[in-house]
Amino acid sequence: MIVTAGIDRLRNERFAPLAGQRVGLMTNPSAVDQNLVRTYDILRHAPDVQLAALFGPEHGFAAAEADATHVGHSVDRHTGAPIYSLYGDSFRPTPDMLSDLDVLICDIQDVGVRFYTYIWTISYIMEACGEAGLPVMILDRPNPLGDVVAGPPLEPEFASFVGRYNIPIQHGMTVGELAHLVNREWNPTPAALTIVRCQGWRRQSRWPDTGLPFVTSSPGMPHFGTVMQYPGSCLIEGTDLSEGRGTALPFEIVGAPYIDGEELADALNASHIDGVVFRPHAFQPTDSKYKGERCYGIQAHIINANVYQPIIAWLTVIWTIRQMYPDNFSWHTAWEAGSSYHFDQLIGSDKPRHQIDAGEPIKAITADWPAFCEAFRAKRASYLLYD
Description:
By secondary structure, the chain is an alpha/beta fold. It folds into two domains: about 220 residues, Rossmann fold (3-Layer(aba) Sandwich); about 130 residues, Aspartate Aminotransferase, domain 1, CATH 3.90.1150.140. It is about 25% helix and about 15% strand. The strands form two sheets. The chain has a seven-stranded mixed sheet. Strand 1, helix 2 and strand 2 form a beta-alpha-beta unit.
């Protein structure tokens, strides 16, 4: 059975819940129906629905801006509605942005990873709408990585826009499920929340099982293969290493001018990490770290997705490079207040960074993670919507 997203179900209901409503919509081009028609287009042409305001998360309403780029407000040329940026002067809507709305809809394709910022944009929307008494509707979509729960906790002092609340790096929930959990567990004034469910999705299903087309959700997420690496490879952002931004393989490669790719590939393959083989790879980024410089490193090739653990794999990559190049490797400072190092914000604590610096083995670094993940599975149980 082909999975249908929340927008398909809403259309099948002839948009009845939105009749006569002034609608706000937070979305980007990743939100499409089975025929690749954007939710934005569906709603602006829907009968008796007034699309009164649009909201864009990180990368903007068109998903065209680079990561961490300040995005300004604009006006939609088709509807004349304002496009409010929620990745500019503020992460949350202001009262003025909400004042002329009857409901705010969120429809966006997430990747199921704690540091992907769209879920935190929705958390701010629910806070603002809860205070304003404005209902929120989530048009749900599958978690492309399925029901995998993996990774470390997030300590409160390391909370940021790449992780506001204590969930694992891979939480195994849909946007709707996670929004429901966040709204009830951490929102001081919970919003009136409606979740329009997907149909036909099963928890264990990954993206290829859905039959849905994959539309890039951000400039650094070109295809599903990138999504499979991202829960671990995004940790590279917290180092001086290039994670492949400015190349055709973002989050699938890593390198720097000082690395010997052959030696690194040999060392990583000797670690016998489940489900992956590392190949020497050279590249020259056109943007971001080492722009215009030749970098040497590796590409990670998934050979068995059923056993591959991206967080363990890429943590091992960082650990290995740190030990091989102690005089060259460095950690990046945080771009947002709350931590001295961006790696700490991504992984949720400063402890793993200190352990890597000390050369402690990966098993020691990750020893407490399974217990946390099991506790999270219990916490999320009442918020799950799918079998």
